[in-house]
């Protein structure tokens, strides 16, 4: 409470409006957790770069990307369903509603994840040797796949925590804890002079994810233990989950298509270089993610109350701050890019041009502000879905062409161009549909 008062006082002195101040105060704890997760993610990435080189880090990241898409399919949009149903059940003290939805998702997602993992395990030799043309990918990918069902349940538990308003705790177990445990595991390997191989690194990831599953499960079941009179909610949760699944799948494919195509059309060495450049360039997305999570509820309330003037003022204030952060980040990456890349190892400095191109794309991304929240929180989710579907199609086409011709450089250009074009388009559509200007100057004000 004391920290909240201090933050409010500081923001008032900086002439922040009431709504903007509230957004920043509410996001404080979550920001700390996300920053910790990002910091440990960078530590892990540096260790992998130092000890495995571009090829090794490429194998690990390619395995992660393949499994992340499998997880999204296995979850089938149920994370959002759990958040909604647990929130409503908790507010009405309806334990039967919570239990019925939770247990139904346990069975549905558990069976679906085991089925998908079994199919992928059978396909792993073909994926490693034929699709990605790298036999060293096979065992790490198998390890990641075996652990995938544990990740599915950990994310369901985490969604339940959010439903009970344990926001920062959910962020900790969902975003930071695994990376903290992986960094500890890698530290143990280095400290005891054990063999730092791709397979041992994959086991570090696997063990950490099992531990996250156990911790999250224990915490969730300490909050909710009422599993009496459970009814089957499969039909209703599928109806709720499917649109969310489609939206999440298109977004995830858009975010991962560069790495997947690069692994398919190029080499894991280039995947490694590109991954590190993207890791640095996408640091600015931290600010945007915090703003999204903090601003969404406020946008929904103000828009529902038809308070467009304070809503627009809040959006413009936050967008201006994001633009300033974006400019500073871009300058840092352009000026100190070679030095930053050298932290991962001297061979990664050849990724400087990739870093600059990706940073430009991310600058446009952060400069266009929380445009996604304005779509989803004002009743224009279907418009956002169609924009994302078109974006995915465009991204697939341009990525395939440019990566085929220029490898990692083509991937960087494709990502930067796609992100920039479609975020600018979203800003224009928000003005037309919602009637909100994200910035207070320029052609958008006309």
TrEMBL record:
The membrane-spanning stretches of this chain are 35-53, 65-83, 103-127, 139-164, 176-194, 200-220, 241-265, 271-291, 318-345, 351-372, 384-403, 409-429
Q: Where in the cell is it found?
A: Cell membrane
Record keyword Nucleotide-binding present: no
Keywords, alphabetical: Cell membrane, Membrane, Transmembrane, Transmembrane helix
Matches recorded under Pfam families: Polysacc_synt
- Please give the InterPro entries that the UniProt record associates with this protein: Poly_Biosynth_Transport, Polysacc_synth
Membrane found in the keyword field: yes
Report membrane topology.
Multi-pass membrane protein
Name of this protein: Flippase
* Source organism: Winogradskyella aquimaris
């Amino acid at each position: 409470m004391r920290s909240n008062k201090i933050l409010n006082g500081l923001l008032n002195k900086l002439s922040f409006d009431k709504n903007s101040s509230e957004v920043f105060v509410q996001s404080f704890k979550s920001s700390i957790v996300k920053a910790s997760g990002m910091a440990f993610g960078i530590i892990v990435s540096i260790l992998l770069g130092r000890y495995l080189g571009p090829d090794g880090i490429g194998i690990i990241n390619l395995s992660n990307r393949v499994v992340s898409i499998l997880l999204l399919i296995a979850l089938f949009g149920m994370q959002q369903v759990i958040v909604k149903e647990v929130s409503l059940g908790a507010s009405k003290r309806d334990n039967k509603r919570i239990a019925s939805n939770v247990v139904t998702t346990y069975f549905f997602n558990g069976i679906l994840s085991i089925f998908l993992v079994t199919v992928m395990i059978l396909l792993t030799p073909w994926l490693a040797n034929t699709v990605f043309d790298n036999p060293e990918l096979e065992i790490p990918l198998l390890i990641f796949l075996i652990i995938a069902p544990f990740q599915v349940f950990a994310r369901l538990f985490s969604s339940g925590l959010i439903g009970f308003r344990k926001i920062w705790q959910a962020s900790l177990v969902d975003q930071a804890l695994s990376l903290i445990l992986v960094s500890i595991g890698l530290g143990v390997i280095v400290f005891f002079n054990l063999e730092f191989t791709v397979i041992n690194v994959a086991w570090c990831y696997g063990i950490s994810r099992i531990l996250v599953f156990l911790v999250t499960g224990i915490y969730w079941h300490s909050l909710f233990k009422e599993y009496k009179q459970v009814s089957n909610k499969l039909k209703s949760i599928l109806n709720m989950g499917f649109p969310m699944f489609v939206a999440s799948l298109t977004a995830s494919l858009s975010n991962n298509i560069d790495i997947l195509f690069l692994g398919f059309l190029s080499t894991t060495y280039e995947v490694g270089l590109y991954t590190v450049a993207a890791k640095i360039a996408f640091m600015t997305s931290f600010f945007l993610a915090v703003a999204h999570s903090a601003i969404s509820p406020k946008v929904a309330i103000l828009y529902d109350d038809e308070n467009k003037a304070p809503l627009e003022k809040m959006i413009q204030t936050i967008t201006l701050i994001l633009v300033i952060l974006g400019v500073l980040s871009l300058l840092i990456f352009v000026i100190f890019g070679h030095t930053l890349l050298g932290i991962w190892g001297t061979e990664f400095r050849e990724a400087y041009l990739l870093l600059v191109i990706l940073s430009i794309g991310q600058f446009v991304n952060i400069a266009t502000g929380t445009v996604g929240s304005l779509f989803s929180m004002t009743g224009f989710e279907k418009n956002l879905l169609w924009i994302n579907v078109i974006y995915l199609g465009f991204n697939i086409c341009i990525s395939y062409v440019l990566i085929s011709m220029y490898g990692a450089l083509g991937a960087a250009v494709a990502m930067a161009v796609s992100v920039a074009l479609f975020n600018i388009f979203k800003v224009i559509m928000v003005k037309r549909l919602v009637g909100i200007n994200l910035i207070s100057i320029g052609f958008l004000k006309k």
